[in-house]
Amino acid sequence: QVQLVESGGGLVQAGGSLRLSCAASGRSFSRYVMGWFRQAPGKEREFVAAINWSGGSTSYADSVKGRFTISRVYAKSTLYLHMNSLNLVHPAVYYCASGIAGSYDCWGQGTQVTVSS
Question: E strands of 26-64, at which residues?
């Protein structure tokens, strides 16, 4: 059974940083893409960043380029999202997801990120 478990969310002051983690298990992820998505209150879930699990190539939403970094530790089957210079547009529930060719079939439960002014 595939499991994705996020952690690392919390309350941070505007301008601060957080690192989200996603522990992945239950499948060989070498053929998969891993991604981060977020959903703010009253809004649809949106793409944040993705990484090719084996090759490490990355892609980002324009809104987070230069501010967020996605990475993974292959041996630990752990995905990360480093978020810098957080501001009041960033609070949301952040989700980890796994999929192939842009179609994500497995999702974590999410971790809440809150930013205070």
Answer: 33-39, 46-52, 58-60
CA distance 75 to 92: 29
Amino acid at the residue 81? L
Q: How far apart are CA 78 and CA 23, in angstroms?
A: 5
Query: Over the stretch 32-60, which tens digit does the pLDDT of each residue have?
Result: 999 999 999 999 999 999 999 888 899 99
Alpha-carbon distance of 70 to 51, in angstroms, equals 7
| Contact between residue 107 and residue 97 where contact means Cβ atoms under 8 Å apart | yes
pLDDT tens-digit readout, 75-112: 889 999 999 999 888 889 999 999 987 799 999 999 99
Concatenating the DSSP letter of every residue in 57-107 gives -EEE-GGGTTTEEEEEEGGGTEEEEEE-S--TT--EEEEEEEEETTEEEEE
Q: Enter the DSSP assignment of 110.
A: -
Asked if residue 49 lies in contact with residue 63, where contact means CB atoms within 8 angstroms, the answer is no
What number of CA atoms fall less than 13 Å from residue 113's CA on the CB side? 31
State the number of CA atoms in the 13 A half-sphere of 12 facing the CB. 22
